[in-house]
């Protein structure tokens, strides 16, 4: 039996003439489950800070959903209605509307609030050399990875989301692009999220080791870490252990800003008639910039004015972490591990993309710093 369907837009009940109206399922069970997952993710993060609550939530969502799938499939059709295993799939259905809600609505709020963590004066203070490194590494990786994915025979959606996650800011970028771009589905997102977790975690060990072998200065290590590593939490883990925390995280946030223009660029390309047959058939065109991405830019502008009170700037990262963890838990429940095991080409693409952004940024560090 396949994994319970986790489409992000639950179907709306259609009333039947002569029968009482069908009540739409409540979102609260799914929201409650996501809240429990967030608490667990926060607790685990306290003991393993290298893994952000968002990444832990993705993993827990995938584990839970696949356990339900195994339990449901073990009962078989004949026992689906009278065994505990068979009831697992039925009970899971109660959570779907709430998980769809957090995967979409809560995600949009979290992405918008992410902008309040970025102050442009701090980013510009990095200097033109660092900014050139960030833009070059991100741009080259984002542009080249889909081309390599096509050569490997991967779908355009998988290639796009892997490129987004590796080049910009990990799981949050994957979720934002998944929400914005047509032609991507849950399998594409699952592959990209797995790549981010796998290679971003490996970077926590590999980057400091390679920096030592290459004789990089602390300033060079800070820039390379921020320009090459996927997740903010992974960057912070390397920075804290190496004494370059502030510089590495600031460089990383400069990459996060690029989320908005790259999402907008993707949307503009999707509006072209020759690249959007599906949306043309449906009589609609994707927006140039989704509203929540525009809100992200507005939040960056507000934070850059310096008018945001300090208590707010201190609280925003925690609030954003909670909302992002809830959203990515919902997205994680759409990951089918069995499909990932069979789809080794996405893992290979992730390795190539990770090596590409590391090589481009390291070259920039060696030449410009």
Automatic annotation (TrEMBL):
Record key words, sorted: Cell membrane, Membrane, Transmembrane, Transmembrane helix
A Pfam match: Cons_hypoth698
Membrane spanning stretches: 27-44, 50-72, 130-148, 160-177, 189-216, 228-247, 253-270, 291-309, 315-335, 347-368
Keyword match Transmembrane: yes
InterPro entries named in the record: UPF0324_pro
Localisation per UniProt entry: Cell membrane
Family, per entry: Belongs to the UPF0324 family.
UniProt-recorded name of the protein: YeiH family protein
Source taxonomy: Bacteria, Bacillati, Actinomycetota, Actinomycetes, Streptosporangiales
């Amino acid at each position: 039996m396949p994994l319970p369907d986790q489409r992000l837009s639950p179907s709306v009940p259609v009333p039947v003439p002569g029968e009482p109206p069908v009540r739409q399922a409540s979102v609260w069970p799914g929201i409650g489950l996501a809240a429990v997952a967030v608490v667990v993710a926060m607790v685990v993060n306290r003991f393993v800070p290298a893994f952000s609550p968002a990444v832990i939530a993705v993993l827990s969502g995938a584990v839970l959903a696949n356990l339900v799938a195994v339990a449901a499939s073990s009962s078989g059709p004949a026992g689906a209605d009278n065994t505990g295993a068979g009831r697992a799939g039925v009970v899971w259905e109660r959570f779907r509307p709430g998980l769809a809600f957090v995967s979409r609505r809560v995600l949009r709020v979290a992405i918008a609030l992410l902008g309040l963590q970025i102050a442009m004066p701090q980013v510009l203070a990095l200097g033109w050399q660092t900014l050139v490194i960030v833009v070059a590494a991100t741009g080259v990786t984002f542009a080249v990875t889909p081309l390599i994915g096509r050569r490997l025979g991967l779908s355009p959606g998988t290639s796009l989301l892997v490129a987004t996650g590796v080049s910009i800011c990990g799981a949050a970028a994957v979720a934002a692009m998944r929400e914005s771009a047509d032609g991507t589905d849950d399998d594409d997102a699952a592959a990209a999220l797995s790549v981010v977790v796998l290679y971003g975690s490996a970077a926590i060990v590999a980057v400091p080791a390679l920096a030592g072998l290459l004789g990089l200065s602390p300033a060079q290590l800070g820039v390379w870490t921020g320009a090459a590593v996927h997740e903010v939490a992974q960057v912070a883990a390397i920075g804290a252990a190496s004494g370059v925390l502030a510089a590495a995280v600031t460089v990383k946030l400069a990459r996060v800003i690029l989320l908005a223009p790259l999402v907008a660029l993707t949307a503009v390309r999707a509006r072209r008639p020759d690249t959007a047959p599906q949306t043309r058939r449906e009589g609609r065109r994707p927006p140039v910039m989704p509203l929540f991405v525009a809100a992200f830019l507005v939040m960056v502008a507000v934070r850059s004015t310096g008018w945001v009170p300090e208590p707010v700037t201190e609280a925003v990262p925690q609030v954003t972490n909670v909302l992002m963890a809830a959203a990515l838990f919902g997205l994680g429940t759409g990951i089918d591990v069995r499909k990932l095991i069979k789809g080794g080409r996405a893992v290979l693409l992730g390795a190539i993309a990770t090596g590409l952004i590391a090589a481009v940024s390291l070259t920039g560090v060696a030449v410009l710093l």
